[in-house]
Amino acid sequence: MRHVLVSVNDVTSRVLLARELKESQARSQVQMDMLLDLLQVDPEHLLAFLDDTSAALVQINSVLRVPARGDGDFRTKIDEIFREMHRIKGDAATLGLASVETRTHAFEDLLQDLRDRPQLSGNDFLPLVVSLDEILGHLQSIRELASRAEDLRANALLNAAPRVPPAVKPVVAGEHDITPPLDALAQRIAADAGKKVRLVTTGLDEVPGDIRRTVRDVAIQLVRNAVVHGIEDAGTRRGLDKDETGLLQLQFKSSEQKLELVFQDDGCGILPDRLREAAVRHGDLSPGEAEQLDTKASLALIFKPGFSTHDGNGRDAGRGVGLDFVLKAVKAIGGKISIATAPGKYTRFSIVLPVHRAAQGAVA
Fold it and tell me: Could you point out which of 75, 265, 314, 325 has its C-alpha 20 to 30 Å from the C-alpha of 112?
């Protein structure tokens, strides 16, 4: 064979066009899914979330910019950012904003990687800056989609049958009750873990306005922690002669002397020995130091930044941040927290806040 005839066609433009079309379709599908999610969220709650989250991300950015002089400063910075990002993830989860929850969870992955490194430097934090910028851009996209969703709502109202509008928006009893989103969060986490739970709340619509945000944030973390760590799966509970549906109870009580938030689950309880073993396993304590801890000191380990008995990294993993956040949030408003537990029976968190603290906040 002396000659070979070959035809060559440049299909670069065709391939690029097909790739661009595929990416455009993917983006459109993502935006459609987000829009459908946003239509299910109360517009006022969504706007408040976007404003709060944007402010929190700005705060995280300022923390990242503060110079650190040593490894201890770097780790303090990680803990502070971790708590704030974990709160944002919890808020997104209660509103059903999966896209935000996924991105904040990915940010937590980066933080966990830094936390696990033996030594840290400023350059190690650069990926956080890139991820933070991506989350901020995503929030802006949500704002734009939320505007479109609001237009859809307005058009739907205009096209609906005419109704006599109420002269004044009625004040509905319990309008500040956070039970519905908390219950939705508990059911979603339980379903993902193959568990069953029932949430019972009382008094949440009576929480004073100045601490309502803190109570909500704390409740989110406690519910998540209970479903992931405390409540057993249905089969295990049947074997223990328990109702296969775990019970979560959240109660807010007020008196002239104090305000109290009590959360209790009827799960497996907290085992001090297991906490001490986890502390030794993760290098927080030596075996000798662990043996010296009494029950109260052992239970206090769960509030230590980065401490966890659960090694999973799913989106509902606390990563040693959830209860650390709870303690910091409670202390920030002058409160105290205590734990009572019975292995195999229950765990109860009691949070007490002096009444004068709430009154001062209301006046301010």
Answer: 265
Residue for token digits 């989609």? Answer: 145
pLDDT digits (tens, 9 = 90+) for 121-152: 888 999 999 999 999 998 888 888 878 767 66
The DSSP output letter for 26 is H
The percent of residues in the chain predicted with pLDDT above 90, rounded, is: 35
Are residue 55 and residue 200 in the same domain, yes or no? no
User: DSSP 3-state assignment of 349?
Assistant: strand
Strands of the sheet containing 336-342, edge to edge, are 197-202, 246-254, 258-265, 346-354, 336-342
Whether the full predicted model's pTM is greater than 0.85, yes or no, is no
Instruction: Find the CATH number of the domain harbouring 268.
Output: 3.30.565.10
Using the structure block, give the residue that is written with the tokens 């039970």.
Answer: 179
Token pair in block for residue 197:
């739970």
Mean pLDDT of the chain: 82
- Say whether both 102 and 222 belong to one domain: no
Domain extent, residue 213, equals 179-363
pLDDT digits (tens, 9 = 90+) for 158-206: 565 555 444 444 434 355 678 888 998 899 899 988 999 999 999 988 8
Picking from 167, 228, 217, the residue whose alpha carbon sits closest to that of residue 332 is: 217
In degrees, to the nearest 5, what angle opens at C-alpha 295 toward C-alphas 197 and 82? 60
Write the DSSP string, 241-298: T--SSEEEEEEEEE-SSEEEEEEEE-SS---HHHHHHHHHHTTSS-HHHHHT--HHHH
Do 37 and 99 lie in one domain? The reply is: yes
Q: Where are the alpha helices (DSSP H) in the chain?
A: 12-39, 43-65, 71-95, 98-116, 126-159, 179-192, 209-225, 234-239, 272-281, 287-291, 295-299, 322-332, 355-363
Residues whose CB is less than 8 angstroms from the CB of residue 215 and which lie 6 or more positions away in sequence, other chains included = 178, 204, 207, 252, 261
Q: In angstroms, how far is CA 63 from the centroid of its own chain?
A: 20
